[in-house]
Amino acid sequence: MKVAATLTVNGTSYPVELDPHISLLRAVREELGLTGSKEGCDDSECGACMMLLDGAPVNSCSYLAMQAVGKEITTVEGLAGDEEVGPLQRAFLQEFGVQCGFCTPGMLISATALLRSNPDPSDEEIRIGLSGNLCRCTGYDGIVKAVHRAATGDVPALRGAPVHVDATPPHHAG
Amino acid sequence: MTPSFTSASTLDDALAAVASGARPVAGGTDLVVGARQGKAPLPEDIVAIDRLDGLRSLEVSDAGLRLGTLVTHGDIVANADLRTRFTALADASAIVGSHATRAKGTIGGNVMNASPAMDTGGPLLCFDATVTLRSATGERTIGLDALWTGPGKTSAAPDELLVAVDLPAPAVGTGSCYVRLEYRRQMEIAVVGATAVVVLTGGGVTDARIAITALTPTIRRVPEAEAAIVGTSGDADAVGASARAAAAAAAPISDVRGSAEYRRAMAEVMATRAIAAALTRARGGSVAIPASPAMYGAKES
Question: Which of the residues B24, B175, B236, B262 has an alpha carbon 20 to 30 A from that of A17?
Fold first, then answer.
């Protein structure tokens, strides 16, 4: 039997009906329709599902959605501003830190948490900090460079039209 | 039955829920992952205890260290006094899972999961930790050797909740270290682990605690290894003899992370590293926390 709950994701409150044992990842993807966060291993190995919960990283595949009620959830959709992707995301583009892109949402969230706790990490600290996130394209060098670049703040605006990020859910099943 | 979830707002609520058959969840990093892996389905009735702020305190005092059950690995690593006085525990918590695991995973959940490969187990055992188990009808305090009865098994009754872990103050002159053999920096489980807590008095080893991890059905201390180093100066020969004794107590299994033969061979290597690093720290030398990557040649951070 589903229970009524409210999840607060990227500053928006969503009233939903939740299976009491559903994972946070499935609730956000399937009930809210925010599909930026990915399911890789569903086993806390790969980090593709990483979100922030009250600012701290969590593998959302292995966390009960009901435990997130009343907390601020941040997904990759929440890292962008209204019109333009954020500086960390621009750094990933500029340093070719994105290949197939499947690990990218988790990498971005993980790097956001890393940079909050350590604003000027060494390459070794970046590698250790992100080693809970797997990139099966093995594009780690670009990712490490991107995080380093974001830490230095040297991330100019992208050329051309702004990259629009639609952070509103395509459908809302609640 | 219909699956249920409640979030306890008081300890009494939580104790009443476990007394009526609910399973507690804090960080979910073992319970939910275990269900995903098919080890055990999620319990029908779950009571979340992660909002019980009274169980979140971490106190370092002259008497020792008291960890509320909800203290996370991240909290343990972040405490400077703890890192200085209970260094091996910080070594262990610093390499549990990834930063996501350490932000959510709790010491109480880690202890009650009773994995023979848990990183904090060896340090807690060597620091003489006791756990306080509370139920709706009372409270008792027992040692970890009485708590852990087998892989994933404890002597706690289903209606008991671990509320605190206590470690007495280490003696003056103590140095400690936990290291593990790992294939990956994070989201890794010990292939083999070793803990050493040594006390140096006037240049000689006057007390030693040595434990092996992922080598026996429950993490255990090895008295023969401890006896081999107490009374020595902690020279290389004594470290070697102690590590060989620790390895001799290994009775490993073969699994996806390593064969029994490999584990047995690596037991002496890891015990040597743990004992040597504990001695270095006891002498005032520097070994980075966590010790494991430092010993693989990573740059100190």
Answer: B24
